[in-house]
Amino acid sequence: MSNPVLTAIADRRSIRAYKGEQLTQEQLDTILKAARESPSARNIQPWHFTVVQKPDILKEVNEEAHKNIGSPDIPPDIFYAAPTVVFVSCNAEDRWGRLDCGIAVQTIALTAHSLGLGSVILGLPDAAFTGPRKDHFNQLLKFPAGYSFAVAIAIGVPAGTKEAHPQEPDRITFI
Ligand SMILES: Cc1cc2nc3c(=O)[nH]c(=O)nc-3n(C[C@H](O)[C@H](O)[C@H](O)COP(=O)(O)O)c2cc1C
User: Fold this and answer.
1) Which of 3, 105, 143, 150 has its CA 20 to 30 A from that of 32?
2) Which residue CA neighbors atom 9 of ligand 1 most closely?
3) 6 assigned to some structural domain
4) Mean pLDDT of all residues in 35-52
5) Is residue 132, in this structure, part of any structural domain at all?
6) Mean pLDDT score of the chain
7) Is residue 40 part of a domain?
8) Residue 49 is part of which domain span?
9) What average pLDDT does the segment 118-140 reach?
10) Distance 1 CA to ligand 1 centre (A)
């Protein structure tokens, strides 16, 4: 069976190399509209999207994440030089907030893919927002009061692709 939604789901990949060009305003608007069309528990929409296209800010978050993680195993640039990164923060009090933000970020990933863009969902930036300078970084990214980092997503024109991830065989039970 095939249709455009199934094709987008099957063909999306985490993209970790980008061309220099920026997203168009129309692409960005389309992505943010789709993100806000995502479902959320009780329709609370407990998310906030901070769009960052300033390399200086991404550099600062990257350096802080490196400092706080302190492991050589993470990539030198956790944003892979993507021209746009959307930070999704969530209402920390909301019972389903982080799950809702996860759904929204997948909507962004699929929408970006449908527009011919690449993306990668990012958890690593979390280290900048939970470390000793978390207040500074929450303010730098303009998270609303009471909101905290949930997840981020780097978006850009892909400079390469990869194989689909192999599916673990025993993750379904029929009863
Ligand atoms: C919640 C979440 C956090 C992730 N964090 C990172 C990250 O910080 N850096 C990264 O390169 N990839 C990250 N990924 C991407 C995964 O590594 C990727 O989805 C997985 O390897 C499967 O590959 P695929 O997306 O190409 O199918 C994250 C994915 C999810 C869903």
Assistant:
1) 3
2) 122
3) no
4) 98
5) yes
6) 97
7) yes
8) 19-156
9) 98
10) 27
Q: For residue 82, what is the domain's CATH number?
A: 3.40.109.10
Ligand 1 nearest atom to the CA of residue 74, by list position: 9
Convert the pLDDT of each residue in 65-105 to its tens digit.
999 998 889 999 999 999 999 999 999 899 999 999 999 99
Domain membership of residue 7 (yes or no) is no
Rounded Cα distance between 113 and 119, Å, is 7
Ligand 1 atom at minimal distance to the Cα of residue 80: 11
pLDDT tens digits for range 17-37 = 999 999 999 999 999 999 999
Give me the number of domains the chain comprises.
1
State the distance from the centre of ligand 1 to the C-alpha of 9, rounded, in angstroms: 15
**Burial class (CB within 10 angstroms; exposed 0-12, middle 13-18, buried 19+) of 74:** middle
> Against a cut of 0.90, is the pTM above it?
yes
How far away, in angstroms, is 75 Cα from ligand 1 center? Answer: 13
Closest of 104, 85, 2, 87 to residue 45, by C-alpha: 104
| Two tokens, residue 35 | 């993100």
Rounded Cα distance, 111 and 119, in Å: 10
Around ligand 1, the residues with Cβ closer than 6 Å are 13-14, 16, 120-124, 151, 165
